[in-house]
Design goal:
By secondary structure, the chain is of the alpha/beta class. Helices cover 28% and strands 14% of the residues. It has five helices and six strands, in the order E-E-H-H-H-E-H-E-H-E-E.
């Protein structure tokens, strides 16, 4: 819908005339079903409102859906397109032969494989079993020994201080509270 007012009288945005700008419809409420520990299963909550501390989302349900999502597609196709980003990232990391490296939310192993190529002792974890399988296949094809495990970034199956370097390319940001990872 275009405004019928004179374009010369329209408001400007960042100093540029608003010529050709469309009048935008009023935003609708963004409502999604969010499972909560204390709410009814089909309860709908406005995601634009602040959360009531008594209705914290059921994080186990959120993680189960995330795991199902990661396992439903072939992220390996995407991971191949970002290998150069992994190379740039690892080139800036302090690791050398013999360093103990953990790749958290490793996906198909882009970072882990690069570290292992440099002679590091590497482990990688991911919530998606199919991605761990792809990571193992990639490592085996290169003759690399990497300890890949299906595990949750929020509950690492390792003793604290066991690694010299802990890395994550993108995956940790998908943890329901990413601040608790590694």
């Amino acid at each position: 819908m275009h405004s019928k007012e004179n374009p010369a009288k329209r408001r400007t945005m960042d100093g540029f005339p608003a010529q050709g700008m469309k009048d935008l419809p009023k935003p609708r409420m963004n409502r999604h079903e969010i499972p909560t520990g204390e709410a009814q299963p089909n309860a709908v909550q406005d995601v634009n409102s602040s959360l009531d501390p008594t209705t914290i989302p059921n994080l186990d349900a959120v993680k189960a859906r995330q795991k199902a999502t990661w396992e439903s597609g072939d992220f390996g196709q995407i991971a191949r397109t970002i290998e150069h980003v992994a190379e740039e990232f690892m080139a800036r990391q302090p690791h050398q032969s013999g360093s103990r490296v953990l790749d958290v939310a490793c996906g198909t192993g882009n970072l882990a494989i690069l570290a292992a190529r440099r002679g590091c002792v590497v482990s990688g974890i991911d919530i998606a079993g199919n991605l761990i399988g792809q990571a193992r296949t990639r490592a085996a094809a290169e003759g690399l020994s990497i300890d890949f495990k299906e595990a949750d970034a929020e509950a690492l199956p390792f003793v604290g201080g066991q690694f010299d370097l802990v890395v994550s390319m993108f995956g940790v940001m998908f943890a329901p509270p990413p601040s608790c990872c590694a």
